[in-house]
Structure formats: C-alpha cells, structure tokens
C-alpha cells in the first residue's frame, strides 16, 4: 500500500527541484526576497474531524482577527477563505495543502507526518490536560469521567480510546471489560468497527499499533467489518446500534455528550440532530483500549504556493503567522474560536517531535500491504 498519495504534478515538481540544487536554492532565495506582502485571498482549510457546519460556524470570526494581526506585521491580506475538507478522509486536506490549492491547513499529527515533505510545520496545538492519563481502560468508564477535563498547564499530547457501544456485541465487549475477562481477537473481529481516515492518529494509526501489540501483529486491515466514518457519524451510528466499536480521541464523549441524549426530533443551535439515547454516553460507550501518547494537531503552510501566493512559503510569513496565531489564541475571543478543535493555544512547532509518528505510519503502511 502506498500510504502517501502524491499527484503527478507534485512528483514532477520534486523531480525538477532535484536538478541543479544550487540554482534552485538561489531561485528560492530570490523568490523569498521578492515575494509580495499582499495576498488577495488567504485560503485556509480544516480537516473534517467534526461536523463541517460546526467548524465553519466556530471559526467564522478568525478571518478578521488574522487579517488585523498580520497587518501589524506588514502583511496586507484582502480576505481569508475557510473551508472544510470533503468527506472523512484527511488526505483530502493534506493533498490540498501539498498542491498549493490551500495556503494554510489544520492537520492532525499523522496527516502532517504523511505530507511533511510538501508542507511547513508552523504550530503545534496545546490542549487542556485530562485528570486521567491511565492506560488501564477500566479507569475511563462511568459517570466519574464527566470531570476528566481539568484546568492547568496545557499539554502537547493526548490519547486515543477504543469504545464499545450499546449494541449487543458492544455490550459483550463492555461486560468483559467490567469483569476483567480477556477480550479475544475473535470477539473484536465479530464486531463492526467505525474507523477514521488512514491518516487519523486516534481513529486509525494508533489503534492499529495497539492491536498489533495486543494481538500478535494483527491490524485494522485484518478486521472483517470496518466502515470509514467521521466522528459525528461514528457516534450517531453507535447510538443507533448500527456500529459496535468506535475509535476516537480521549475526550470524544465530551464532544457528543449532549447529542447522545437529545431526542432525534430535536437539533442544537448548530443544527446537530440528537442521537436519542436515554442513558449517559459515559455508561453506554465503554472504553476497552487506550493508545500510547499521540502528538497534538498541527497548523501547516504549503511549500508549493500558486502564483500570487508565494509569500506563504517565506520565512518572514511563517514567523508573522506563528506570532499572529499565538497572539490570537491568547485572547478570550481566540480561545472560543480554537475550542472547535479542543485546542487551548499554540506553540511554535518542531518537526523533530513527529519523527516517531513517521515511524508509526511506516509500520502501519507495511501492515496494510
């Protein structure tokens, strides 16, 4: 399996860049020096890890804040266009950034690692720490987990959880967790799994590594029944008992707690339909597996800007953008915006922090060949 999908045009660009490296470097330096500080439309894209309308509504005030902050640093941006990647495949946004059809993208760590050759890491997100950081799944279940989010120093990693839903087979897994009985590969293989994109850290990559560790090298690719769904779709399907197992980040139940018990005939302010359950999501979505630590999401810039957007590939723009986003995230209004991804702030990103994840991607790719 070729885990990274690179378009023919990008391949041609990389081949050309390999010829006469000194002249290419000089040309790049000239382009950087002469790049305009005026950008008519700065194009930004978010991956669809949440409902698209929720993301668009939550980030609607970001353009005006970013335009103002960048203006203070010498950049004249006419407007900021925000889109959400189509479908549930995060590769869509990775490809868009790599090709230059978008200038800036919010990428999960594994998607960044997959496209790091064509993108520049600008920022790493921070999140609120959770009071529970245990790898023991039994500690993640029950009503007490409503208060797992705590205030304090932000952290740069999180964990992925494997949830068994309220379906008959999901309850079978949950009962084994409660009794301390071993969950066999046959138990898991008999279930229907909601998985995310193959570049999703908590929805695919790290659960695969967990399976490999606990079940003699078996992976998600070895499971009999899997369906790729967005997280909102996965929890909705679990509530409808159409899916037995959901893979998600550790605070996923917090995001869908209200939806879980809202009647299916009602919607919230963002238009999200209720899932119609009567019991708490913390009782009905039982954790049976906990992944290793996962690096937080990233904000990246394209290395292959289209004509008129050359500025986004310069060091000056990178610094201005980093400073602007960190500044915005430190305000009350900015915190409300980035909360759509459960981010609490941003730090300047270090590519070295994601090297171990690249190794994980290679491991998963080899397992899927």
Note down, in words, how this protein is organized.
This protein is α/β, with parallel strands linked by helices and 369 residues long. It folds into two domains: 38-127 and 296-367, Periplasmic binding protein-like II (D-Maltodextrin-Binding Protein, domain 2, 3-Layer(aba) Sandwich); 137-294, CypI, domain 2 (D-Maltodextrin-Binding Protein, domain 2), CATH 3.40.190.190. Helices cover 39% and strands 18% of the residues. It has 15 helices and 13 strands. The strands form three sheets. Strands 2-1-3-12-4-13 form a six-stranded mixed β-sheet. The protein has a five-stranded mixed β-sheet with strand order 8-7-9-6-10, with helices on both faces. The protein is globular and about 65 Å long.
Summarize, please.
By secondary structure, the protein is an alpha/beta fold.
Attribute tags:
single chain; 369 residues; alpha/beta; D-Maltodextrin-Binding Protein, domain 2; 15 helices; 13 strands
Total count of helical runs of at least 4 residues: 15
CATH superfamily of the largest domain: Periplasmic binding protein-like II
The proportion of residues forming helix, as a percent range, comes to 25-40%
CATH level-3 fold name of the largest domain: D-Maltodextrin-Binding Protein, domain 2
Overall mean pLDDT stands at: 87
- The string of secondary-structure elements, in order, is HHEHHEHEHEEEHHEHEHEHHEEEHHEH
CATH architecture of the largest domain: 3-Layer(aba) Sandwich
Strand order of the largest sheet: 2-1-3-12-4-13
- What low-confidence regions span 5 or more consecutive residues with pLDDT below 50? 1-34
Q: Could you give a short account of the major beta sheet? A: 6 strands, mixed
Shape: globular
Structural class: alpha/beta
Oligomer: single chain
Count of extended strands: 13
**Residues in β-strands, percent:** 15-25%
CATH class category name of the largest domain: Alpha Beta
**Number of individual domains:** 2
End-to-end gap: 5 Å
Rg for CA atoms: 21 Å
């Amino acid at each position: 399996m070729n885990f990274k999908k690179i378009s023919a045009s990008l391949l041609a660009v990389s081949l050309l860049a390999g010829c006469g490296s000194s002249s290419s470097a000089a040309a790049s330096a000239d382009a950087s020096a002469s790049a305009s500080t005026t950008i008519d439309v700065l194009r930004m894209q978010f991956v669809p890890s949440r409902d698209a309308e929720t993301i668009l509504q939550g980030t609607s005030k970001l353009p005006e804040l970013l335009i103002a902050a960048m203006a203070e640093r010498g950049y004249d941006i006419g407007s900021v266009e925000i889109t959400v990647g189509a479908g549930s495949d995060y590769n869509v946004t990775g490809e868009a950034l790599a090709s230059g059809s978008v200038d800036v993208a919010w990428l999960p760590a594994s998607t960044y690692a997959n496209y790091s050759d064509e993108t520049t890491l600008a920022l790493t997100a921070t999140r609120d720490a959770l009071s529970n950081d245990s790898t023991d799944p039994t500690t993640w279940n029950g009503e007490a987990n409503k208060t797992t989010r705590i205030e304090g120093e932000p952290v740069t990693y999180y964990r992925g959880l494997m949830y068994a839903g309220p379906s008959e087979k999901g309850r079978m897994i949950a009962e084994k967790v409660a009794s301390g009985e071993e969950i066999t590969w046959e138990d898991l293989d008999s279930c229907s799994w909601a998985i995310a994109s193959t570049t999703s850290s908590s929805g695919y990559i790290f659960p695969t590594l967990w399976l490999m560790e606990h079940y003699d090298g078996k992976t998600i690719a070895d499971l009999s029944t899997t369906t790729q769904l967005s997280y909102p779709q996965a929890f909705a399907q679990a509530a409808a008992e159409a899916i037995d197992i959901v893979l998600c980040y550790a605070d996923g139940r917090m995001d869908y707690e209200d939806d879980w018990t809202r009647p299916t005939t009602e919607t919230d302010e963002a238009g999200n339909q209720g899932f119609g359950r009567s019991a708490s999501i913390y009782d009905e979505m039982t954790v049976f597996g906990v992944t290793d630590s996962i690096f937080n999401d990233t904000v990246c810039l394209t290395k292959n800007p289209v004509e008129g957007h050359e500025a986004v590939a310069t060091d000056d723009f990178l610094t201005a953008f980093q400073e602007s986003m960190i500044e915005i995230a430190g305000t009350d209004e900015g915190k409300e915006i980035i909360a759509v991804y459960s981010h609490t702030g941003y730090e300047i990103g270090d590519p070295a922090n994601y090297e171990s994840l690249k190794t994980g991607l290679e491991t998963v790719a080899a397992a899927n060949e």
